[in-house]
Write a structure and sequence with these properties.
This protein is mainly α. It has a single domain (12-117), classed as Phosphatidylinositol 3-kinase, accessory domain (PIK) (Serine Threonine Protein Phosphatase 5, Tetratricopeptide repeat), CATH 1.25.40. It contains six helices and no strands.
């Protein structure tokens, strides 16, 4: 059984850096079609986001600068999570990402569809 890392002792600034690193790693793995490498990164992103949410909206909002990242994977994850606390910003980024081709554009489209149906659940 895998041991789950908790992030309670990390500062919010450290969490944002770890989130960005994991989102980039996940996006790169998806681009390569290496889902086994991407899954642990996705798990880390979920755990980090849960910690940010537990700390409150002002901590979640520290993700917003990641919406401007040059890294598509980082923008995609940050936009998806932003739907929960800044939906207009999250939707705008996801719509932009959905216009491209590839797996990340596909993920952006699916995320938007699930959000619009009210079926998107946050970790």
């Amino acid at each position: 059984m895998a041991v789950r890392k908790t992030y309670e002792r990390n500062s919010t600034e450290e969490l944002i850096i770890l989130y960005e690193q994991a989102a980039s790693e996940h996006g790169q793995a998806q681009d390569r079609g290496d889902y086994r490498a991407g899954n642990p990164a996705a798990d880390r992103i979920g755990a980090i986001y849960r910690e940010l949410r537990k700390r409150g909206r002002e901590h979640q909002q520290k993700l917003l600068p990641l919406l401007l990242s040059n890294d598509t994977g980082v923008r995609l994850w940050a936009a998806a999570h932003a739907l929960e606390f800044e939906p207009r910003q999250g939707e705008a980024i996801l719509k932009d990402l959905a216009k491209a081709k590839g797996i990340q554009a596909f993920n952006a489209r699916i995320t938007l569809e699930e959000w619009q149906k009210g079926a998107l659940r946050f970790p």
